């Protein structure tokens, strides 16, 4: 029956629940205690004018002030439900109204609404007496109208459901009255209506019933037993009817609160007074003790102003004859600042981008102080040198917002200390530390270590040679700081830039892709671009200057006398020429530069070494003395032109000089015939010797060639795999290298045609002749093998 009645009350009250003060700073709701878990409270979305569909997207949730979550929010519908059965007495004890506070937190953006739910009491507790039997002693001389306070019954309910009245069963001697204390509690006062007579009735007993105001009313009862004592003429009297005292809540144990005093005019045992508490409530008994002899009231333990502000103690003085008097002691607890503020972070965004706008909400937090007055008033602050500020949103609620723009490259993380300080004396404070990290955005382009780079490479270099490195640094982080290098398209010497050099996109190493020829390209510039991995990517450029260092790879080229004609150059010198006569001038050039192009001229061989000399600087050939009749008519000079390189290269030229008496044509023809007959014998001997030497060298070459060929075939596969592995196995080398054949003055491979003629009378030997590609004259003349072959061909033609 009781449970059915409670359910009716719950259903009746839920029908009339409404939202108080909608649209104000705090949203108010009301529920009855003892409602089952999952009971509906209200639709938060409707009350806050929010779109229910957006609650889930904004991760709506409920955060209670205490450690327990009494309510749950359905983020899909906006309905607020009870998570557990609410017991008002457990939550708030005797505090009325009983209010539970919580916040409704929304994200994206962060937003909070403060709400409170008032828990209404239902009559689920009946009044109870601490003792089932109340014992009193009264002398038979007690005059009618005497009043005796009785032990109060305890009802955990509040309001109309709490204890309302007392009643006693039928008796001729007493009546009971319901009295009110200053704190609103009710107690029973027993009044003697007719005199007692111990000889007629030594003990009077009846039932004392305490009834609450619920519907239906609940009650509790205790038996009152009064022993009638023999006459004791004087009753003890207290010095005051009401004692007042104040005690600090941090007072130590055994602290003397005050001393009560009573006197009795009787003598002997009837005048001996003992003190005790007449109302033995749990709260008073656990906090205070009274000395039965002296009346000192002392503390049993520390007090807590936040739990109880005032204690009302009923003190009883009883003499030896059983007579007693009563007085009331009112103890006021004085609050001290013994509770530091409490900071509770309800929501935190720990990672924010560095381009966050000012007033961006980073965190939500609450500050609570259990003290009262100035001791409970708080102020909140953070360090001044941080780009954040704490702004109040509602009572004791704050939001942490940004003030200025961020630069992650300077500060990537902030350690924020929230300090909550009360206004008590001494001041107490609490610090709560939170860490906010700044995420990177791509706001810095790569920066090169130098404004420009100069790299050097020697000509005739092999492919894939590392010639230098560029380096760029990006102060951003992660992908935004990943630098990729590339070359801007351009042309050098009519060929694309990418055919000359390549750059490693990851480490900036610059490689030469092909052999460089100083005589074609002496230097060139390229633009290297460094781009980061951000979106969109940022980039910067730098100029790289590549300088080709000259190598001595060009032999001197002789312009005069010409060496590409079938007949050697001839010059005439009159026999009447004086010493120092300019016979001819050898003219040569060198395709190299610098020291490699400095030429010197030397007379390697001459028919008469003492007749001619050559200037080493300019190549002028002059006579050293006067001609004599003993000097041979035909003089042959071999001149060597040598450069000044570290490994010098040289070229030679042959000059035939005829000593004549005059310059007539007839004389010239005669002279030529005579010279030819004179030299035929000597030349034939030289040719025979040369043929023998060449034949011997040829046979040796054939044997060596066959041996090398067999050896290469056997080990070709092993060497090829080894070379391939060494070349391509290097992970630092660019795989996109190309092979560009040079057409400069680099070394060339030659094939030689070797044969013997048959059917000739003298078994003439045909010389080795190089089969070479068509090259410009300069390249042909610069080839030493070609020059030697030309010389041999010239000798052969002269012998024929």
UniProtKB/TrEMBL annotation:
GO molecular function terms attached to this record: calcium ion binding
Localization, UniProt: Cell membrane
Residue ranges crossing the lipid bilayer per the database entry: 685-711
CDD domains for this protein: Cadherin_repeat
Primary site of residence: membrane
Domain of life: Eukaryota
Lipid biosynthesis listed as a keyword: no
Keyword Glycoprotein tagged: yes
Domain Cadherin stretches: 71-129, 130-238, 239-343, 352-448, 449-558, 565-670
A cellular component annotation (GO) from this entry: plasma membrane
Described function: Potential calcium-dependent cell-adhesion protein. May be involved in the establishment and maintenance of specific neuronal connections in the brain.
Protein name: Cadherin domain-containing protein
């Amino acid at each position: 029956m009781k449970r059915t009645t409670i359910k009716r009350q719950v259903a009746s009250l839920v029908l009339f629940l409404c939202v108080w003060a909608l649209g104000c700073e705090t949203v108010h709701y009301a529920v009855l205690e003892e409602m089952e878990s999952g009971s509906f409270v209200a639709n938060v979305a409707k009350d806050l004018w929010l779109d229910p569909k957006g609650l889930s997207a904004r991760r709506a949730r409920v955060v209670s002030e205490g450690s327990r979550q009494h309510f749950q929010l359905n983020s899909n519908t906006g309905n607020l439900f009870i998570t557990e059965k609410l017991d008002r007495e457990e939550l708030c004890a005797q505090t009325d109204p009983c209010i539970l506070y919580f916040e409704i937190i929304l994200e994206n953006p962060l937003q909070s609404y403060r709400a409170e739910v008032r828990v209404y009491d239902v009559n689920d507790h009946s009044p109870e007496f601490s003792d089932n039997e109340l014992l009193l002693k009264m002398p038979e001389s007690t005059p009618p109208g005497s009043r005796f306070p009785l032990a109060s019954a305890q009802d955990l309910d509040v309001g109309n459901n709490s204890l309302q009245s007392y009643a006693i069963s039928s008796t001729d001697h007493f009546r009971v009255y319901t009295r009110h204390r200053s704190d609103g509690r009710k107690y029973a006062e027993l009044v003697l209506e007719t005199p007692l007579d111990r000889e007629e009735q030594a003990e009077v007993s009846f039932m004392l019933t305490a009834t609450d105001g619920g519907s239906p009313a609940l009650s509790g009862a205790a038996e009152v037993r009064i022993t009638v004592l023999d006459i004791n003429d004087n009753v003890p009297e207290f010095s005051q009817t009401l004692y007042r005292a104040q005690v600090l809540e941090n007072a130590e144990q055994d602290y003397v609160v005050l001393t009560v005093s009573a006197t009795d005019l009787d003598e002997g045992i009837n005048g001996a007074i003992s003190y005790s508490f007449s109302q033995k409530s749990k709260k008073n008994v656990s906090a205070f003790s009274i000395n039965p002899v002296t009346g000192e009231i002392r503390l049993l333990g520390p007090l807590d102003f936040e739990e109880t502000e005032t204690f009302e103690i009923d003190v009883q003085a009883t003499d030896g004859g059983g007579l007693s008097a009563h007085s009331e002691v009112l103890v006021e607890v004085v609050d001290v600042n013994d509770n530091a503020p409490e900071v509770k972070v309800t929501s935190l965004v720990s990672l924010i981008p560095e381009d966050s706008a000012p007033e961006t909400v980073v965190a939500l937090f609450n500050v609570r102080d259990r003290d009262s007055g100035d001791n409970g008033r708080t102020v909140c602050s953070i360090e001044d040198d941080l780009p954040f500020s704490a702004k109040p949103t509602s009572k004791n609620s704050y939001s942490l917002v940004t003030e200025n723009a961020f630069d992650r490259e300077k500060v990537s993380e902030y350690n924020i200390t929230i300090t909550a300080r009360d206004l008590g004396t001494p001041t107490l404070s609490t610090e709560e530390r939170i860490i906010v990290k700044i995420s990177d955005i791509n706001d810095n382009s790569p920066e090169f270590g130098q404004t420009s780079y100069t790299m050097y490479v020697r000509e005739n270099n092999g492919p894939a040679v590392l010639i230098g490195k560029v380096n760029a640094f990006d102060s951003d982080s992660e992908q935004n700081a990943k630098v990729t290098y590339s070359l801007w398209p351009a042309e050098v010497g009519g060929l694309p830039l990418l055919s000359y050099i390549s750059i490693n996109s990851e480490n900036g190493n610059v490689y030469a892709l092909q052999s460089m020829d100083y005589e074609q390209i002496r230097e060139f510039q390229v633009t290297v671009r460094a781009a980061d991995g951000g979106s969109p990517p940022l980039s910067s450029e730098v100029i790289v200057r590549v300088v080709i260092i000259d190598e001595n790879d060009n032999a001197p080229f002789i312009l005069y006398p010409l060496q590409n004609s079938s007949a050697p150059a001839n010059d005439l010198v009159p026999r009447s020429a004086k010493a120092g006569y300019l016979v001819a001038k050898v003219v040569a050039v060198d395709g190299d530069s610098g020291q490699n192009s400095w030429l010197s001229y030397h007379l390697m061989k001459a028919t008469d070494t003492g007749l001619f000399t050559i200037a080493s600087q300019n190549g002028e050939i002059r006579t050293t003395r006067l001609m004599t009749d003993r000097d041979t008519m035909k003089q042959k000079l071999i001149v060597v032109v040598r450069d000044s390189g570290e490994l010098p290269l040289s070229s030679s030229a042959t000059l035939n000089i005829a000593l004549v008496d005059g310059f007539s044509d007839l004389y010239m023809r005669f002279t030529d015939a005579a010279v030819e007959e004179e030299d035929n014998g000597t030349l034939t001997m030289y040719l025979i010797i040369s043929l023998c030497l060449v034949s011997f060298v040829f046979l040796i070459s054939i044997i060596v060639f066959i041996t090398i060929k067999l050896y290469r075939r056997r080990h070709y596969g092993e060497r090829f795999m080894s070379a391939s592995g060494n070349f391509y196995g290097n992970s630092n080398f660019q795989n996109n290298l190309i092979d560009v054949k040079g057409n400069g003055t680099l070394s060339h491979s030659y094939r030689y045609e070797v044969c013997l003629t048959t059917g000739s009378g003298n078994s003439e030997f045909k010389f080795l002749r190089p089969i070479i590609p068509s090259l410009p004259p300069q390249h042909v003349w610069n080839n030493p093998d070609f020059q030697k072959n030309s010389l041999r061909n010239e000798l052969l033609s002269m012998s024929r």
